[in-house]
Amino acid sequence: MRSLLNTLYLASGYLSGLCIALITLIITSQIVGRLFGFIVPSAEDFSGYALAAATFFGLAYTFREGGHIRVTLVIQNWRPRFRYFQELCVLLFALLLVSFMSFYSVHMVWESYVFEEVSSGYVSVPIWMPQVPVALGVIVLNIAILDDVIAMLRRQSPSYKAHENELHLEEV
């Protein structure tokens, strides 16, 4: 199971990188097109869709790698027991919040599909299509947070903690 979850987080990170490469290709084609006198229809729309996908696909991978900002100035000197409960409470709150986001992201995709919403750019795109990566990214983040909550309840260190310690050692 651990291997499957790590593969899921890594795949999410790769998809994020792929979306960033896609943005680069779209913008480059738009620049080259202007030089040769043609326009790439809805380039800004597709770049925006890819940016949203890159952002949300990257959330779980960044969380697992300790890349999200954590302010540890206060809690770093707490006794281990207090720090454990503080981190568990924060993870439970994050799980609640991201579960809420996951539910409503999926609901947003479903409503866009049911009501047949389309974009208003040169190229009409069903809105549910660019919304799917957003919902998938939030769901994978939800799984990653749940994974760390379970690790904390088993008295194991959460995934971001190991990378946080690595970053701290590099600063010294």
From TrEMBL:
Major subcellular location class: membrane
Domain of life from the UniProt record: Bacteria
GO annotation, biological process: C4-dicarboxylate transport
InterPro entries the record matches: DctQ (IPR055348), TRAP_DctQ (IPR007387)
Ranges annotated as spanning the membrane: 12-40, 46-63, 84-107, 127-146
Record PANTHER family: 2,3-DIKETO-L-GULONATE TRAP TRANSPORTER SMALL PERMEASE PROTEIN YIAM (PTHR35011), TRAP TRANSPORTER SMALL PERMEASE PROTEIN (PTHR35011:SF10)
Subunit relationships: The complex comprises the extracytoplasmic solute receptor protein and the two transmembrane proteins.
Family: Belongs to the TRAP transporter small permease family.
Annotated protein name in UniProt: TRAP transporter small permease protein
Lineage of the organism: Bacteria, Pseudomonadati, Pseudomonadota, Gammaproteobacteria, Oceanospirillales
